[in-house]
What we know:
With 71 residues, this protein is mainly α. 52% of the residues lie in helices and 0% in strands. The protein has helices at residues 5-14, 23-33, 36-39, 43-54. The termini are far apart.
Amino acid sequence: PTYSYASLIAQAINATDDKKVTLNGIYTFIMDHYPYYQHAQNGWQNSIRHNLSLNKAFVRVQRASNEPGRG
């Protein structure tokens, strides 16, 4: 795909009703919408995590106490 990783992340977030998605949800969205990533090496997932941690456009939100996971 010709989209940046930040753009792919934004697409995944904007595809949800509440504009929140887990890291695994981002991976799933990208693989479902861009089959290239189904067969690509896992390095792209590291790039997604890197973009999430450094790009100020993305904010980590605490999960509700009844949801498993970190954030």
